Amino acid sequence: MSKIRLENLTKRYGVVEVLHGINLDMAPDEFTVLVGPSGCGKSTTLRMIAGLESVSSGEIYVDDTPVSHLDPKDRDLAMVFQDYALYPHMDVARNISFALRLQKRPKAEIAAKVREVADLVGLTDFLSRKPGELSGGQRQRVAMARALAKDSSIFLFDEPLSNLDAKLRGQMRAELALMSQRVRKNMIYVTHDQIEAMTLADRIVVMEGGHIQQQGTPEELFKRPANRFVAGFIGSPPMNFLNGTLTETPTGLAVQGDGFAITLPEWAGRDLASSASREITLGIRPSDLRFDPEAPEGAGFDLNVRVSEYIGAQSVLLCDCGSVSFTVEVKSETPIALGEKLRFGCQAEALHLFDKTSGQAVLNNKHP
Amino acid sequence: MNAANRLTPYLFLAPAAIIMVIALLYPLGYMVYGSFRDWNPAQALSETEFVGLRNYIYLWNEAAFRESLGVTLKFAFFCVAFELILGVGLALLLDRKLRGMSILRTLFILPMMIAPVVVGLMWRYMYHPTVGTFNRWLEAIGIDGIDWLGRKALMSVIIADIWQWTPFIFILALAALQSLPRSALEAARIDGATPWQLIWHIKLPLMMPVLIVTALLRLIDAFKVLEVILVMTEGGPGLSTEIVALRISRTAVEFRELGVAAAMSNYLLILLMILTIGMFAFTRLQELRATRAAKIIQQEG
Questions:
Q1: Could you tell me the residue range of the domain that residue A196 belongs to?
Q2: Average pLDDT per block of 10 residues along chain B, 301 residues long
Q3: A chain contacts of residue B300, beta-carbon cutoff 8 Å
Q4: Closest alpha carbon to A225 in A171, A281, A149
Q5: Is A346 within 8 Å of A299 (Cβ atoms)?
Q6: Are A225 and A236 in contact (CB under 8 A)?
Q7: Bridge partners of A60?
Q8: pLDDT at A365
Q9: B interface toward A at CB cutoff 8 Å?
């Protein structure tokens, strides 16, 4: 049970600043996922919390105590690394018990703890093996068991699943979710995979270019992205973006662009009335569109279907809207024909509007 | 066509193989043959008398040879032990990013690049009882000079060898250190290891395979050392620094006992063979372990 707070956390390598003042509050026992593309500063942030990277300025607080001057070993944390970071010369049992042995705990206590966590992650039969004799998934379990054995109050994960193959990754993700429910601790998890972020997190922190772009629950980030970057990063397949202009029409405020015209609902029109003729980016998720030849004027898109990717119950259609590519997710039984121009309807609630230059959201899903 | 293709590599290897046979196997066979004969330099080998194992038995019982063997073992053991401690210690100290480190590292490996004869001369001058660097320093601070190449001769030649060959172990240890898995070291720091525990529990065990091979290579070299000691002490005073290689050359040249010298060379060869085979056995064992591990993973695949 501890509360972690990052205050204006900054990292500089020489003159290059890679992390520009991160402010973040994590509630006790919260599963926080830092997510973002490569080079966004998420791993650096995690390594600074761990004490493996020095803090250039700012402070890390654990339960209101500053810790940035402490050695990693004095910060009461455990960490799981991307490449597992096992000790190759020790067998599984000794890997798991390394921290306990350094603390000089009684032998019986160590043995009991090793049995307990090995049982928890399903390694009981492999305790006398060396890491070189284990598969990737088993090594990942050893790394997990080693972190669990330490009984620290903070758990750090640095892309723990990215070295596994796709099937194993899904399985381990589920096991991790289960484990995080059983072992309530502060967990901070770094990944570039937004699906891992969505499935595991209590709170997602989306980072890009050394800044926090947005933080919130998975649902908040999915439904109300604060800017175009978050909107495009969270959700799969990613959101479609179309550039257009806000225009006054007889039916209300509308967005008009290359090959489409969408009328905004009345409440949105009220909010944005003063910004008529402003350049805007319209965002809409592939799953928010339905095949509907009867969709009324101002509430649908005419799309030229180029490719259909069949993925089972759903199919992903790669289309053109004017000259911009556009993705639609439909039920596979939807009667579509490649190369044809088809009409897809959308609900006004599903629309997102972003300022074209700043990328900030000006109208979000299910606005009050 | 196919057969020709398969033979091509052997064709290319042939010149090297022929040189090996002429320059290595032939003299080696000559030496082994000669070691069973009573042979002095005035005779051709074919005129000599076959004496069976007499040369070997004679040597086994000869005090001077045993003394020389003892000196060699002492020399090799102390040299390699101190070189390992110093070389690995330096590597652990210098395995970090500091300004000017690359220059420092280059300076450290300079001694290794100097010809042994030059090293011998250099140290002989430095050890000189009256005008040598060391004794002048000692006198300058009011301490009596040390009889470096007299009563302390073995220690002095060991110091010179350590000076020359510590860099070799330093380079290899540093390379081993820098190829250690970085994340395992970080994991150990998070697990609570102090810098000393990190060295003791993680770094040294992981460097061990490289260190064992390095130590064996150095041992083999130390048993064969000749020039430095020849230049510094010529084996003296008395027999105190007469290592086996020196004794072999004296037996052949001064005592004109080619058969005995050959037998002595064979004793040394046997010793070196044991070390070399030990080294190969060790690396082979490592490979076997790796393939066994790979097989286990595959079977469970």
A1: 4-233
A2: 79 92 89 85 79 84 87 92 94 84 82 88 87 85 80 87 91 91 92 92 92 90 86 80 86 84 89 89 87 80 59
A3: 135
A4: A281
A5: yes
A6: no
A7: A6
A8: 54
A9: 181, 183-184, 186-194, 197, 201-202, 205-206, 208, 289-290, 292-293, 296-297, 300-301
Are A50 and B190 within 8 A, CB to CB? yes
pTM score, two decimals? 0.81
From the candidates A54, A81, A114, which should be mutated to test the interface with B, based on the most B CB atoms within 10 A? A81
ipTM score assigned to the predicted complex: 0.82
Contact: A73, B181; criterion CB under 8 Å:
no
The number of beta carbons lying within 10 Å of the beta carbon of residue B62 is 14
Cα B233 from Cα B150, distance rounded (Å)? 9
Residue A361 neighbours by CB under 8 Å, 6+ apart = A224, A225, A226, A227, A228, A231, A352, A353, A354
Phi-psi region of B101 (alpha: psi -120 to 50; beta: other; left: phi over 0): alpha
Whether A202 and A82 map to the same domain: the answer is: yes
Q: Which of A287, A276, A280, A294 is nearest to A238 (CA)?
A: A287
The string of pLDDT tens digits covering residues A204-213 is 999 999 999 9
Options 1.10.3720.10, 3.40.1010.10, 3.40.190.10, 3.40.640.10; CATH of B44-289? 1.10.3720.10
CA dist., res. B272 & res. B55, Å (int) = 20
Provide the 3-class DSSP secondary structure of residue B296.
helix
Cα–Cα nearest to B246, from B120, B112, B35, B69: B69
Is A368 within the bounds of a domain? no
Enumerate the residues of chain B whose CB falls inside 8 A of the CB of residue A53.
Answer: none
The beta-carbon neighbor of A83 closest among B183, B293, B297 is B183
Please tell me whether the peptide bond between B41 and the residue prior to it is cis, using omega within 30 degrees of 0: no
Give B107 to chain A, closest Cα distance, Å: 28
Q: Which of A70, A89, A95, A138 to mutate to test the interface with B (most CBs of B within 10 A)?
A: A89
Helix (H) and strand (E) counts in chain B: 15, 2
Nearest to A365 by CA among A256, A215, A244, A265: A265
Angle between helices B204-224 and B63-94 in degrees, nearest 10: 140
